[in-house]
Amino acid sequence: MTDTPGRDPDVLTTAELATKLGLSPQTVRRMANAGQIPALKTGKDFRYSWQAVREVLRQPHHQPGGSADDPDTPDQTELPKKGAGYRAQRRARTGAQYPTTDTDAD
Question: Where does the sequence pass through the membrane (predicted)?
Answer without folding.
Answer: none
